[in-house]
Amino acid sequence: MPRSYVQLKQRVLFSKPQKTRSYSPPPLPVDVLWEIFSILLDQCPTVSQKHETLFSISHVCSVWREAAVSHYRLWAEILNPSDPCSARFEEILSRARNAPFSITANIKFESQLPTQPQWQKVLSQMDRATRIDILFEGEREIGKMDLKEMFKPEVPSLKELFISCETEDDQFVAFQFPLKKLPCFNGNATSLRVLELYNCVIVPSLIMTFPNLTDLTIAGSPSMARISIVHLVPWWDMCFTQKMPSLQNLTIKRAANTSETVRRARSERRSQPGSLRMIHLSGEMDAIARIMKPERSALPRSCDVRLEIEYPSRFPGNPARTLDRVLSEIWGSDSSPCLEFTLDNHLFMMFKHTSAVRTIWISGNSEVCRPLMLRIVNKRVVTKLNLTLQTVISALEVVQRPRNKR
Predict the structure, then answer these.
(1) Whose CA, among 21, 145, 338, 350, lies 20 to 30 Å from 77?
(2) pLDDT at residue 218 in the model
(3) Neighbours of 18 (CB within 10 A)
(4) pTM of the prediction?
């Protein structure tokens, strides 16, 4: 064995270990870190999880802490005035600086609205609020709550408003306080873009306007009672009386019919919002029919319609004929050949009609939807739906009446 090899081996075995230089990659730019932090927060479903995530991020290293603390808007998005930890609330409020903030809070119904110092601090700076998300919890008496005190300051920059309720008896909550009297709107919601009412509704007024509202949602959870059209029709009428000229998406779910008289806006005052792109209605068949009846062919072009018929009719009448007449007039006014026609008649029935103007979906339990499908798919189906030889017809099954057993 060569001597040089032995010497080299001994040098390797008996030499003192030398410190190697560790390599650390250069830190990411601050704007890239901000984007990463924002994505992480967007994946958190609750405010408490956003709290934990953002505070954890700020304790990773000095670079991340400096980047997180300097991004005021991140802290402004997780402001919770009902936070039980006052020290954490104060720290978040100070880190938010003067950035526009979002308010997320859970309020349990008692005799009055919260009066803690944290709430008072938020109310004194309400002009900075761009998003308000409030969940009311408690008894059905929540509806008697005076919302005027909570929304007392004007909120000129408010763009998104979410109000939801959870009651002990799973009942729908109808707030008795009119929306027009909320001081935060000062008569008009000029900056509001998104309005969502979940398991509750607030009485609107035709003297109010929402010039920049693009998304309106009134819905309820499956466990809650359905929503009477007495509370829904006023909002629908506002959409078609020039009160929401910028509306793009209208969603009303779990609609229920009623024997009560429903007051409608005068027909001569109705006009279509040209910006509307989607109408999504779900609930009882007769409730949907009564809501849509005044409009008929007045829907704007390029406005898709999605109907989910979840329950049969509870009152005398023929809602299937009414809905068929509404849809027929819409198809007639479109004057556009059908490009795709789908009818799936299984336990869950689905109807889809696509033209160059709009797409109309109808879905629901087969037994519930059958009366409507029988009226749509009849001898005049080719003329009514404007079917052509080029129409793509898929999953087509003829809707037939169940044969009586002899």
Answers:
(1) 145
(2) 94
(3) 5
(4) 0.80
